[in-house]
Predict the 3D structure of the following.
Amino acid sequence: MKKIEAIIRKSKFEDVKKALHNVEVNFFSYWDVTGVGNEKQGHVYRGISYSTAEIQRRFLSIVVNDDFVQPTIDSIIESGATEKVGDGKIFVLPVEEAYRIRTGEKGGTSLN
């Protein structure tokens, strides 16, 4: 099992959510976050200067069985990309164990 953490643009969240459902990833958690990125230059929109490093993002936390890792990553990249600076990042971490609280199931079957 792996935990996939993705930081994406809030504006792409609905597209990413739909793409995840299309690859049968139907459960994940998410939070609204703000972070600091590598972008150093500001942008001007309607006469107001702002930094893309401080734009609101959405943080997704997804735990999947090993065979779902690459389809999950691919769906996030394909649906979340705008090809502009600030599209986000994806991190993959190992998960040692998972339990379903209701039944006590453990392992990969607890994710279904």
Summary: The domain at 2-111 is CATH 3.30.70.120 (Alpha-Beta Plaits). The chain has a mean pLDDT of 90. DSSP finds two helices and six strands in the chain.
